[in-house]
Amino acid sequence: MELVLASASPQRRALLEAAGYRFVVVAADVDELEDGVAPLELAAANARLKAMAIAGAHPERVVVGADTVVALGERSFGKPASEAEANATLASLAGSWHEVHTGICVVADGETRSATATTRVRFRRLSAEEIERHVALGEWRDRAGGYAIQESGGGLVEALEGDHDNVIGLPVGLLAQLLPEDVQPRAGK
Predict the structure, then answer these.
(1) Active site residue 109
(2) What SS3 string covers 107-147?
(3) What pLDDT score was predicted for residue 32?
(4) Gap between the Cα atoms of 120 and 56, Å rounded
(5) pLDDT tens digits for 153-162?
(6) How many CA atoms lie less than 13 Å away from 99 in the CB half-sphere?
């Protein structure tokens, strides 16, 4: 069966390609939930919204929806809308542990399988000047929590507990457990 990624995220696309999966991208145009839900449930609910939005039009395919939420306790940090919001987000995360939750929803043959992954990340202490320099790089755009661990945002990280791919946006090992047996990566990967 053909795999469909219901996300326009270049990070998710790169992770699936690196893992050797063949897939097409059909980005879901949905109004994501933002408030009133605990961070872990928020990631799971938005992943399901994305997968279900695409699955109806592609019943013969395996559809994967994913959503990543950065959380400090029960406070969720999605994608900052501005430089000021990115500055505030990074200042909140600086010097402390936070969680990165990714929800995955797979729809195949009318059946839905879902799971979430959580990775703990500790940022080192950051000065206001360091935060401003980081935000000026522009990596905060379209990134939950306002950073990209696979880019210069990795320099903000002091420690990590869990799946590095999850922080990028797609825990590939967990996804492999949810996919039907006939959806396998290409040989040699």
Answers:
(1) no
(2) EECCEEEEEEEEEEEEECCCCHHHHHHHHHCCCCCCCHHHC
(3) 80
(4) 34
(5) 999 999 999 9
(6) 16
Q: Is the pLDDT of residue 188 over 70?
A: no
SS3 2: coil
The chain-wide mean pLDDT, for the chain, equals: 93
Q: Rounded to whole angstroms, how far apart are CA atoms 136 and 145?
A: 15
The one-letter amino acid code at 143 reads R
CB count in 10 Å sphere of residue 21: 20
Q: Which of 10, 41, 183, 38 is nearest to 106 (CA)?
A: 183
SS3 64: strand
Q: Is 151 helix (H, G, I), strand (E, B) or coil?
A: coil
Model pTM score? 0.92
Q: Shortest CA distance to 167 belongs to which of 121, 122, 116?
A: 121
The residue from 29, 31, 35, 67 that is catalytic is 67
Q: What tokens does 3 get?
A: 């795999």
Other beta carbons less than 10 A from residue 30's beta carbon:
17
Question: Both tokens of residue 118?
Answer: 């959580």
52-70 as b/e: b if 16+ CB within 10 A = bbbbeeeeebbbbbbbbbb
Task: Indicate the pairing of strand 75-77 with strand 23-25.
Answer: unpaired
